[in-house]
Predict the structure.
Amino acid sequence: MRIAIIGYGGMGGYHGRLLRQYCGGDPEYPVELAGIYDISSERAAAARAEGIFAYESSERLMADDSVDAVLIATPNDVHAQYVERAAAAGKHIICEKPVGLGLSQAEHMYACAESAGVVFEVHQNRRWDDDFLTVKNIYDHREHIGDVYRIESRVMGGNGIPGDWRKRAAQGGGMMLDWGVHLIDQMFEMVKGAVVSLHCEYSYIYGEEVEDGCRLSVRFENGTEYLIVIATDCFINLPRWQLYGTEGTAQIADWDLSGGIVRPVVRRDEHIAGIRAGNGFTRTMAPRVGDSIIKSPLEIVRARPFEFYKNFAAACAGDELPAVRKEQVLRVSALMEAAQRSAQSDEVIKERI
Ligand SMILES: NC(=O)c1ccc[n+]([C@@H]2O[C@H](COP(=O)([O-])OP(=O)(O)OC[C@H]3O[C@@H](n4cnc5c(N)ncnc54)[C@H](O)[C@@H]3O)[C@@H](O)[C@H]2O)c1
């Protein structure tokens, strides 16, 4: 399967390196890089300098019969037009997340691919992140911390909104479309059943026209609470993940997967030593110590590398279904739209999603 990349910036370059270094020639990963197209002559020159074929125009790329699939890694506002053209040219399509600027655009993109009979898969790659798979394993197996009833998923940076188009609403900027889409996709991969209510707040610390962070609280019909926090103004981070279960707490502190699991041994109040705290005394807020807790390390779950490309190639060959399915992508888009409505109105949205 020969794939051409459209948009050879940060993420297009990342895909290009993976496709060239690891996938080309390996029968387990039957995908290879055909070339790239970027609207910027500088980026095209950079590709050529790396020995990658750069198409002079997107028309040339679309007309090249040796290209089986395109991978769209442009700013978010131009995903849809390339999906339309690639589908019309009979190419299978990988589209970077977020699929488009909203639910109706996403539906239109899927309709284009369906009527052309091509595979269309959105690159929701963070389903295969080791930190997520590790947390999902804790969630799925109650022997770790019992039944998980609250989940906190945070990504925190201190660099503001990077680049130019990510700061512009018309180009699909803002942290909800940038990171919210990943964290919501992970949430739906983990917690089953319908969402029944949500509340979202956007932050505008840097005064850009789009949100530079958000805080999204979601409640599922089974009672699970799920908090998503995205920040770009933070120089001391809270943990990437914190899970509260009926029999313990699990934490992943950062991308390096440091953290662990703590389970209480006894829950009878008389065993809890109090501490001095500030100008007072507390047993309620005293940390559990000694033999009243059992600490255990995280059982790290690692993804098989490049699972996404492999699945995409198998889907194009008709051997597998795309791992990232239409109904999942549309559900994430629907939740993002509800979160945006909540952020604008400052109201709790009570809808089944
Ligand atoms: N899945 C992930 O982990 C992940 C990570 C980063 C970015 N992304 C996604 O990848 C896409 C690109 O993000 P980025 O960080 O690489 O942005 P970027 O600004 O680094 O790169 C975008 C590239 O697209 C080119 N471009 C702009 N308009 C174009 C057009 N009309 N036709 C062809 N090329 C055009 C630009 O010249 C630039 O080289 C976005 O959709 C983003 O959300 C995904």
Summary: Residues 6-12, 37-40, 43, 73-76, 78, 96-97, 123, 125, 163, 165, 178 surround nicotinamide-adenine-dinucleotide (CB under 6 Å). The radius of gyration is 23 Å. The first strand starts at residue 2 and ends at 6. The chain has two domains: 2-123, 127-257+298-304+335-345.
